[in-house]
Amino acid sequence: MWKRDEKKPVVGIFGFSGCAGDQLAILHMEDSTVDFFTSADIKFFHMAQSHQEVPEVDVAVIEGSINTERQLKELKEIREMAGVVVALGTCACYGGIQYLGDDEETFKERMKYVYGKSGETPEFLDLVGQPKPAQPISDFIDVDIMIPGCPVSEENFVPIYTKLISGLLPQKYPMPVCVECKYEGNDCFLLHGKFCLGPVTAAGCNATCPSLDISCVGCFGTYEGANYPSMIDKLKEIGLSEEDAIRKLKMFGGNKVEQALKGD
Amino acid sequence: MKTYKMPKNVFPDFIELIKTKGKLFGPVKQKSKYSFEEIKNLQELDFDYQRTIMGVKKFLTPPKYKTLTFDKEGTKDIIDEPETNIVIGVHPCDIHAVKILDRLFLGNIKDPYYASKRENLIIIGHSCLPDDKCLCQSTGTDMVEDGFDLFLTELADNYLVWVGSDKGLSLTIAAGELLTEEISDEDIQEYVRWQQKRSSMFKTVMPSFKYMADIITLNYDSEAWEQFGEKCLSCGTCSLVCPTCNCFNVDDKILMNAEGGFRERMLDSCTLPYYSMVAGDHDFRPDRTTRLKLYYTHKLKEYIGRWGQPGCVGCGRCVTYCPVDINVITVSEALFGEVCETKEVCE
């Protein structure tokens, strides 16, 4: 019979640039929140506890994208001390909304636009580190498991997380929102000439929006089997310009959409 | 097979009677779609429908359900489906689909989860008139002789009630005076006229469907697959809405307390990436083209080799719900069209 190790695994929940909504989502799983703090040894979780301690962790759960040099340094330190690294939420997985795909030059332009004509970064930024374009954590370190979501859903997070803290391997089986949408028995927006990004968006949300008659905007990020050229054709067919279609795909799709459109 | 007649004015009484035998489900209109939903009052029932999004498979192999729970003490199967479900308004194509599922799940190796759900399901069929997406005449599933408990054929003022099983017979006995065995010559005439009218209404007739399995074999390396593969969104909709598609995935889920959990079975689709991945991370079908080819060769060819009948019952769901027009009709037409020298031969 299956039985987990007696010793509780050590877990750290870390946050970088994002709304911290994924960390909040963990605390919001009301029925399981107590179990979350008892089933593993939570050594680091800024949002939930005042005392942090990080010699090393078995599982590091990382939220948010990286957009300062200091964050990058911290991220690499976490990778060094962690057994398994989990990217939590769309920002950590794909860069999130703040991923704009800027190169150095456009980023400088943007800084000028925001912080004044000189383009010099204000002194207070030294506190958080010099800014850089937002990128997903997988651009810098090896990520073992990705759990996208904006924020992550309990149904998606718990089964993966509990397997990790039990020393088991989570099942990797990507599917698009359409699968869960049909599980719910919903009609298809695209067939009625309405916008929806279900076919290119990772499942895990139980098709929450389509089930409430709201189109999918793609907040769970890219679906591994996504066919972007065909999706763009479909969006054009329902009246979007190619530019608009790509803009909408990039909103949450981050670096993956950019790579796919470049043909990588 | 016994046949009765039921005047339409007693139909509400008949429904009330049936509701005492189990939980009643039937076609309900929900905005732009129809779905088999629980019937609380008669007004919700709408027999004037073409197809629901999910067929009867949603009762027999539900999209997602628990099959087992486990904890420190051991495991416990969840097999019993204590409640009787009655689904009314099922069209002949969907009944044929249940017959196909029965063959698969109740064959040599019985699936206990399916078996218990099937045993507790009463199917009351209902006659229908086709639209341009129905191709059941070409798949030979426009008529149904068995696989149901009762079947209602709707005429102007009456229903003809066909009995298909012992359970159905029990229902007719319980219905007592609501039904009559006296079927007049006029009724028979009306029935024949209705059948003739229905037959003439089919707009999608594909004579080539009879030998589509051969066409697929002969035209196995068709370029059409590439073209469909380029368009396919790999969204899985075709197989999820297909009333005969039944592939499922199984995952064990551990609860947050890490002391127990459950085993879940969920509908899968062969159009998804990793569907054909085996141990060692080898994927037999890493691209959309080969996955789509698997879907259609299995449905339209392999089924025939195994069961003498395609895995398609002509319900038109894939025709309705694929966002990029890849369905049994377009695929068959493309494969057949390629091997026709002249248009005359094709017709």
Would you summarize the structure shown here?
The complex is a heterodimer of chains A (264) and B (347). Chain A is of the alpha/beta class and 264 residues long.
If you had to describe this structure to a student in words, what would you say it looks like?
The complex is a heterodimer of chains A (264) and B (347). Helix content of chain A is 39%, strand content 14%. Chain A has 264 residues and is an alpha/beta fold. Chain A folds into two domains: 10-165, Rossmann fold (3-Layer(aba) Sandwich); 177-262, no CATH class. In chain A, the strands form two sheets. A five-stranded parallel beta sheet of chain A has the order 2-1-3-5-7. Chain A has a two-stranded antiparallel ribbon with strand order 4-6. In chain A, α10 (228-237) runs antiparallel to α11 (242-262). Chain A starts with 9 loop residues before the first strand and ends with a helix. The model of chain A has no long low-confidence stretch (mean pLDDT 90). Chain B folds into two domains: 3-60 and 80-200, no CATH class; 207-245 and 271-346, no CATH class. Chain B has 14 helices and 13 strands. In chain B, α8 (212-218) crosses α11 and α9 packs across α11.
